[in-house]
Amino acid sequence: MKSGLFFKFLYLGMSLSLISCQTTVTMDVVRDGVQLPYIKNTANECYYLDEFMPIPDNLVSGRSGKLRLRYYTYKSALYKDYKNKHIILSFYSTDEQCWSLFEEYYVTD
């Protein structure tokens, strides 16, 4: 009797594992874009980026002569009239405090 009960539990366990394997579904996760502040690309604009920019997917810093440069990359961002786009914002500064927008890049597939 004990062995018959063991096989019933074994069969039940195998049946449940097969059912769970068959009902497993993978779903694509829809990622909402991060909201970026509206930034003007005009002379004499001063932005303190470290105080209000969302954390980027990638940040590259560098120099070109006396200018310091920063490139913020967002794989999915809501910016101006663009929704859920891959956006790169480049900034320049002479003192590493006040930053001005240099260029905006919208990456397409």
UniProtKB/TrEMBL annotation:
Residues 1-20 form the signal peptide. The keyword Signal applies. Keywords: Signal. It comes from the Bacteria. This is Lipoprotein. It comes from Pseudobacteriovorax antillogorgiicola. The lineage of its organism: Bacteria, Pseudomonadati, Bdellovibrionota, Oligoflexia, Oligoflexales.
